[in-house]
Amino acid sequence: MTRITQLDHFGVPVKDLEAARRWYMEFLGMDLRHDSSRLDPATATPNIQVQAGDVVIFLFRLLMNGEALADLPGPSPVVTFKVQDPEAAIAYLRSQNYPFEGPVTLESGQRVVYFRDPDENLLAFEVSAPEDGGR
Length: 135
Hints:
The protein is of the alpha+beta class.
């Protein structure tokens, strides 16, 4: 297994993306990092990313029944970690026969591997950052 180097981001489910955007940006003073609020729920979970310093939060819109494909990993809270050696992290999951999905390329260009902890919480390893650095 490779060493986890930092928390990349944390996902938070919200009912109203625009209200959440206003609260996190106006009340907490966070900046808009990326807006994917217009994503088709059938292919990805609409979200807005806000950031303050090294803190990044993905605000995921809660989906209604039938809105998303059954095999999509969201929209639950997700904790994404940066790892020292992405290939070693994937190799470790494989060597342990631990179920995972990916690498998945997100709309932002970030590539992640999804897996769940024993309580079914969604976790991810970032295996590559977006080319433009601007997620």
